[in-house]
UniProtKB/TrEMBL annotation:
Pfam families: Glyoxalase. It comes from the Bacteria. Keywords: Dioxygenase, Oxidoreductase. Residues 7-131, 152-269 form the VOC domain. GO terms for molecular function: dioxygenase activity. It comes from Cohnella kolymensis. The lineage of its organism: Bacteria, Bacillati, Bacillota, Bacilli, Bacillales. This is Ring-cleaving dioxygenase.
């Protein structure tokens, strides 16, 4: 039997200025900064995680903000649009909030749903859709009540260089079910309540280029460490070349690139972000894996200071 992912675990993107990154995702969108750490492969760069109050799988967007980094180009081989789910009846609130911060929005409809689409300060494409599924976030920040707050991912739009092959991976490897086609997209449904609807433009997309304002990879959920090992074997048996299992402190990870050019990861739900700090203190301190602790002073000296702050309308 094919394994079935519950949906998106997290999405990771490139960014530039770290304070602007925090201001947008915490200050404007009201997400919680649940982890402040470093890129384990490039410790001079932050790795920032934003999500709901606990950083639950299906809510987490992460960034590598590198000051002065080149601007990317959104295109094939990337997640083209990140979709967030908000409670029913809250799109009007979000349209007004975004416009108050000087962020232009465009409305779109597909699969019988209305979306408002916008971009962050570096051009990363985002959209909001109302969904009943999934628990409401219990995190309230910057004047956003919990009844309007972003729940987590509604899904994502995958820009593929080879959409036929990408769609085959979604169905045959990740165990999603095709839900239909509309407005030039094919939709695939995962088993969970968040991050569960993946849309793929049916037309092939020209190649994008990595850099600030683009997605590095999308991660899919494995429920535990045992299932994660099964996922790795399944990916290999499907003809891909997965990496070894990598310990990322807050989840274990396996990566592979599907034939539409998109870097996929499979990540475990456990152990989560309270692995090294208490739930009420998430994101307050720079957390380092033990092998970097001897270099803490050097690492901190190379990072620009950041703070989560309430923004006034017109700031972003």
């Amino acid at each position: 039997m094919t394994l079935q992912t519950a949906g998106i675990h997290h999405i990771t993107a490139f960014a530039g200025d770290p304070q602007q990154n925090v201001d947008f995702y915490a200050g404007v969108l009201g997400l919680r900064l649940v982890k402040k750490t470093i890129n384990f492969d490039a410790p001079e760069v932050y790795h920032l995680y934003f999500g709901n109050e606990a950083g639950s799988p299906g809510t987490i967007i992460t960034f590598f903000p590198w000051p002065g980094s080149r601007k990317g180009r959104i295109g094939g081989g990337q997640v083209g649009i990140t979709t967030y789910a908000v409670p029913p009846g809250s799109l009007g609130f979000w349209e007004e909030r975004l416009q108050a911060f000087g962020i232009s929005v465009v409305k779109e409809a597909r699969f019988g749903e209305e979306y408002i689409r916008f971009s962050d300060h570096e051009g990363l494409r985002l959209e909001l859709v109302e969904r009943r599924e999934g628990e409401n976030s219990r995190w309230s920040f910057g004047g956003i009540p919990t009844g309007k707050a972003i729940k987590g991912f509604g899904g994502a739009v995958l820009f593929s260089f080879n959409p036929v092959r990408t769609m085959q991976v979604l169905e045959q490897v990740l165990g999603m079910k095709k839900a239909g086609e509309d407005a030039g997209y094919a939709r695939f449904q995962a088993a969970g309540e968040l991050g569960n609807r993946i849309d793929v433009p049916i037309a092939s997309m020209g190649w994008g280029a990595g850099g600030a304002g683009t997605i590095h990879h999308i991660a899919w959920r494995a429920k535990d460490f045992e299932e994660h090992e099964q996922w790795r074997r399944s990916v290999a048996d499907s003809g891909f070349k997965p990496t070894p299992i990598i310990d990322r402190q807050y989840f274990n990870a396996v990566y592979f690139r599907e034939e539409g050019g998109i870097l996929f990861e499979i990540a475990t739900d456990p152990p989560g972000f309270a692995n090294d700090e208490s739930p009420d203190k998430l994101g307050e301190k720079l957390m380092l894996p033990e092998w970097f602790e001897p270099k803490r002073a050097e690492i901190e000296a190379n990072l620009l200071p950041i703070q989560v702050r309430v923004l006034q309308e017109g700031e972003s």
